[in-house]
Amino acid sequence: MTAPSRNALVPFVSVDNMMRLVLHIGVERMMVELAAEIEADFRRWPLFDKTPRVASHSDIGVIELMPTSDGETYGFKYVNGHPSNMKKGLQTVTAFGLLADVATGYPLMLSEMTILTALRTAATSALAAKWLAPKGATTMAMIGNGAQAEFQALAFKAVCGVTEVRLYDIDPAATAKCARNLAGRGLTVVSCRSAEEAILGAQIITTCTADKQLATILTDNMVGSGVHINAVGGDCPGKTELHRDILLRSEIFVEYPPQTRIEGEIQQLTADHPVTELWQVMTGAAPGRSTAKAITLFDSVGFAIEDFSALRYVHSRLRASGLFQDLDMIADPDDPRDLFGMILRAQAELAA
User: Of 235, 245, 334, 335, which is the active-site residue?
Assistant: First the structure.
């Protein structure tokens, strides 16, 4: 049949090409550049359409759509969260995303986002810590050593200057995996036997677990003054990692309050408990850490603007890298009114 027109083709970034792009750019450089892209979009936060992600919950997980637009470009991500998948040999989180031109509605790019989400989540965490963590922080506790752990460690190294990562997971095999993957990457990696051991001497504490049954990862007596907590977790209603008393002692920073109050650590607090939006700190509209002894908490749940930033970052590097495939996704008849005619012409070509 007749080859598709240029208008019919949409660049697609496969998992293979995403990995090649990461290796082409370099993991740590990509973390730094993603963080810069996300910060640039946070600084123009009021321009974006904002809505809590559209979630379909079940007893075993959640499937979500995360849309946003800056008025020129539209983006969305499909993402799931199924903690029991790991027992089946499957990923807890999978994702794909799309960018489109607002002026025409035509897609600009379709991309895998399982790997890209891990990168942007880590870049956002490190970006928040750049603004909120104690000055000169060099040691991070990483509690939960699953699929996200290495990304977090490398992002904090590249963006914040962390030099030591202290690992703990209830599954020693996960800690061994993480330590092995981080070997030779310029970090001092310490494997610990408990969460209490992991946070010794850490100025930054990252919690990143997925199992809904393990509700409290940090208790109040474990957290002293002058630290920054990066609460990542597998956020959803009912899933928390921090004891409520820690929240009451902390200066809390979030992405988008209407979403975080449903899914984040602050679901444990009253609906009017004060929180600060991270974009306001970046623009100078609100203060960040108040004192050296304060506990700052970034209640990270992930927001669509971060995915938008990550997709635009990848899209901007496609042509130069060549790491994409063209998909025949858009019907493009010679006469926009004659869509059925395309089928008739295809029928004629097949019969010839």
Answer: 235
Asked if residue 239 has pLDDT above 60, the reply is: yes
Of the pLDDT bands very low, low, confident and very high (cuts 50, 70, 90), residue 171 is very high
Q: What is the pLDDT of residue 1?
A: 65
Please tell me whether residues 194 and 91 are part of one structural domain.
no
Whether 210 is in a domain gets the answer: yes
Are residues 13 and 92 located together in one domain of the fold?
yes
For residue 330, is it within any domain?
A: yes
| C-beta of residue 297 within 8 angstroms of C-beta of residue 250 | yes
> Does the annotation mark 235 as catalytic?
yes
Distances (CA, A) of 65 to 124, 171, 259, 303: 19, 31, 13, 11
Angle formed at CA 175 by CA 297 and CA 127, multiple of 5 degrees: 30
Residue 45's pLDDT band, with cuts at 50, 70 and 90, is very high
Listing from the earlier edge strand, what are the strands of the sheet with 164-168?
A: 188-191, 164-168, 139-143, 204-207, 228-231, 295-299, 250-254, 276-277
Write the DSSP assignment of 248-267 as a string of letters. HHEEEEES-HHHHHHHSGGG
Range of the domain at 211: 123-302
293 and 334 fall within a common domain: no
204 and 176 part of one domain:
yes
Asked whether the beta carbons of 204 and 137 are under 8 A apart, the reply is yes
Q: What is the CATH number of the domain that holds 245?
A: 3.40.50.720
Reading the block at residue 142, the tokens are: 């990483």
Same domain, 292 and 316: no
Instruction: Tell me what pLDDT residue 235 has.
Output: 67
Both 261 and 222 in one domain: the answer is: yes
- Go through the chain and tell me how many residues it has: 352
**42: Cβ–Cβ under 8 A, 6 or more apart, which residues?**
278, 279, 282, 283, 305
Residue 89 C-alpha from the chain's centroid: 22
Q: Is there a single domain that holds both residue 287 and residue 151?
A: yes
Kind and range of the H or E run holding 87: none
